[in-house]
Amino acid sequence: MHVAILQQLRLDIVEGRWQAGERLPEPLLCEEFGVSRTPLRDAFRILETEGLVELIPHVGAVVTAPNASDIIGAFEVLALLEAAAAETVARTRPPEVLKKIGKTNELMQIALEKGNHRRYFELNDDFHYAIVEGADNPVLRQTHEHLMWHVHRVRHTINRVRPFGREAGTGEEHQAIIRAIAGGEPARAFELVRAHVLGVGAATLTDAGLAQPPDASESDSTDSASLLRSSGLQATDNGTR
N or C: which terminus of the chain carries fewer CB neighbours within 10 A? Predict the structure, then answer.
């Protein structure tokens, strides 16, 4: 039972039902799920390990706020995971994976032209998941899934305030990745995917309003701009993954 509760709570946080700084109301949630506090608190503890809530004594589970350091950390690891997956897929070149990423990228462009942002982002996730699944590495897949919840959360925040337009991406980077994988170029596939995901991380910081402008005060050495430079992230005009 607590697995189903965990999945729903995670989704509610990611999609913005519960905002940063808000306490998750135990009585209400126990009533919604039809459970006692024990399975609910079990789910809270897992959410805390995932960084989505903080358990505060005498207060309860409070939704955390994403920050620049967390986002950069997530994208740095995601970049390596997805790059490693692409490297593996470029070596093995499973026909079903090649077909999946090619068709998915075509459908992404159709959704983009129609301005269907929900469908576009779903397909974009499918593109990346296909590469990760194609590597056939359960540990890599599970770690990737865990980190992606943080990406989904920031994306939902951005999409609530930022209109969808052509700047969401044109697919050139995906096309280059497809060519490298289909052409059996593992090293190139690794570098292209890593650069793509890191660039998206930088763009996400900017879109979320967490990246300070270049002329911001130089006295704060831990600001998000400094973190961007130290991590090697460079912003791109493609705000999707």
Answer: N
Of 29 and 151, the structure prediction assigns the larger pLDDT to 29
Q: How many CB atoms lie within 10 A of CB 34?
A: 8
pLDDT, residue 170, reads 52
pLDDT tens-place string over residues 107-120 = 999 998 888 888 88
For the chain, how big is the Rg over CA atoms in Å?
19
- 3-class secondary structure for 83-137? HHHHHHHHHHCCHHHHHHHHHHHHHHHHHHHHCCHHHHHHHHHHHHHHHHHHCCC
The two three-digit tokens of residue 22, written as one number: 């808000």
**Looking at the predicted structure, is the pLDDT value of residue 161 above 70?**
no
